[in-house]
Design brief:
mainly alpha
Length: 90
Amino acid sequence: MARSRQGPTQKTTPAQPVAADREPAKKRTSPVAFLRQVRAEARKVTWPTRKETGITTAMVFVMVTIAAIFFLLVDLIIQTGIGFILDIGG
């Protein structure tokens, strides 16, 4: 087995961040200005229509029902398989 030669270990000090790497201090926003900004952003949101919301809700219920039936069947199959194995064992 060959051993690799390593030179003397050097202690390094953590690098100090350069002034350009630092983010400038953020200016504080007053609560009134903040609420104004929130209101402006809320106006930009594209809200779904009542029809889109109903369709999406129905799809969620359908998918939850399909998932519940799937996991019920998987659970029954596993339960039957384990019961069969335990009956064989005695």
